[in-house]
Design goal:
Elements (H helix, E strand, L loop, with lengths): L1 H10 L2 E2 L18 E2 L5 H13 L9 E11 L11 E8 L19 H7 L4 E5 H4 L8 E6 L6 E4 L43 E6 L9 H10 L4 E6 L9 H4 L7 H9 L3 E5 L5 H4 L5 H19 L5 E5 L14 H16 L5 E4 L2 H4 L13 H11 L20
Parallel strand pairs: 1-2, 5-7, 8-9, 8-10, 10-11, 11-12
Antiparallel strand pairs: 3-4, 3-6, 4-5, 6-7
Length: about 400
Amino acid sequence: MASEIDNILANLGATNSTGRATGYDELQIGVSQIDTRFESTFDIIRKAALVENTPHIFGKSDTCEAIVLRSEGDTAAPSTGGGAALIAYCKIINSHHTTLLPDPTTLDPTDFLSQALISAFPKFRYSAVDLMGVLPPGTKVNVTFDPGSLQGGTINLPGAPACIDVCPTGSASFPGALGAFAGGAPGAFFRLPPGSHDVGLLFGDSQSDGGSTLGGHLPKELKEKGVELKVEAKYGKGLISGKEHWDIENPAGIAQKALAAARPGFVIVELGGNDSYWVGSGNSTEKQTRYAQTIQKWVSTIQSYGVKAIIWFGPSKATKIGSNGTPYDSLRQNVRNWQQEILGNMSGVTWHDTVPYTEGLPMKTDGVHFIGSSYKEWANRLVQLGAPLGGLKSSTNAGATR
């Protein structure tokens, strides 16, 4: 009988007073052991039966989907493979996972309360070498928890060749709060293709028209990354309201002449706010179809000039109240919704909500435009680590970080 009990205990991983270990390997460092000196035979068998028959909800290394809330350098780990060691704080989005943490209000890097909350979420390791850039907030990723831990793990990334131009995996554009997450947009990080001229082109409206606007400050920010950004912007012109001005399908029009002159490696589009009154309630199927066709013409025309990456920014936050009491931003939100839906499935295009990057910035009295220092701050936010342009580097300055 004693020998049968010994065999049962041995099968359960229990040891006797000496541990029966005859060598270092047999000590099984890191493996859970049961010592019969401290537990009765009945307790050992009961616990083993409980473990054996209890469903393993998470498993030893649970793999699931998550949304990046913030990326930053991993100061606790050395660089690997010649690339920067990074970590991303993520929210798990699998239905079988739960968390007691509330969602952050915004992903704005200057919202200190939200950023403090984000710091409590699980963090996952990755290397910039794998993706040639930095995962921005809102990117949808596949993660694997470390064995026995729900505090962190690794992000499962494709090798570098899969992300040379625009990463094919899905990402989400965050309209601010996590509850507004819609998903579906293409990968939101990129670097300039090898051999490019390290030149970008920005198409914009009044928010980018002039030296004291976004169009004046963003080129200065990108210049520090070794990237030249040219600007073609016009006050009051959108996609519909500025159709004649841009004349997108005409090789002799303003838009195509700018593309031909710049020969950019990437294009930023900051248009749509001036279409807000035309879009209106957003309930017109006919208008939405026309808007989609117009956007498709823009994308196909830009890509015909060899552009591999198009970064499209939705209308910024507005505080203006119309004469009928309607918040102007409610109309701009309809534009955002249409743009995100239309651009979400287009290859080589990423759509980003600018509200998290403009909300809270001091504005002019018109409730639509910003004061000069706000445009400067807006530009600076866009190029920070984890922001839409934070992973942008020139092909000759690939090691630069910010």
